[in-house]
Each structure stands twice: as C-alpha cells, then as structure tokens.
Amino acid sequence: MFLIAEEAAAQPGMEGYLVTYGPLVLMFVVLYFLLIRPQQKRQKTRNSMLGNLKKGDKIVTIGGLHGTILEINDETVILRVNDVTKLTFDRSAINSVTASATTAEEKK
C-alpha cells in the first residue's frame, strides 16, 4: 500500500490528480446526496403544495393555527378559524394541508 502511494506521488500523471482530488470529489458527491438533494425535493413538494391551495382547503399554519381557506390570492390567504373569526396570513405561513376542498365535500 505504501509503495503504491509513493509511485502515485512520483508520477505527475492522472493517478496523482486522482489521489489528490479524489477525496474532495467523493466528499462533494456524498454531501450532495445526503444534504442538497433531499432539501431540493422538500422544497419542490412544498412549492407544489402552496401552488395547489384552493378555497375550502383545511390547513395548518407554521404557528399551529388550524383553519379553512376563505379567500386566496398570490401572496395572502384569509382563513376562517371559527364561525366569526377571519385571519389574514401570508401564503408562505402555511405548513400543511389537512384536508382538501374536494375531500371535505365528499365526506358530506
């Protein structure tokens, strides 16, 4: 093993570059598959969830508030929390959809 490393260090060819830069490339590939790629997938699913919101969806905000969407536009959402209370939130404050409008209509 030691003899192979000496030969690779003595030869300035492709093997020298592989020994020098190989671990860096390997670390980048591992970081990509463990950190970057999963984050991109989560961001893509969140963006599609926010894009598919519609009136009547039951949602949960980042703060944990449960409500039903009364009105929605590009940046804000008006939620009905109970029979009287209506609150306005940014669209980005929505954490998850608990029931879509079509699912709620089918249950009735």
From TrEMBL:
Taxonomy, superkingdom: Bacteria
Gene Ontology cellular-component annotations: plasma membrane
InterPro entries from the UniProt entry: Preprotein_translocase_YajC
One Pfam family matching this protein: YajC
Record SMART domains: YajC
Compartments in which it is found: Cell membrane
Membrane topology according to the record: Single-pass membrane protein
BP term (GO), one: protein transport
Bilayer-crossing regions: 16-36
Family: Belongs to the YajC family.
Protein name: Preprotein translocase subunit YajC
Gene name of this polypeptide: yajC
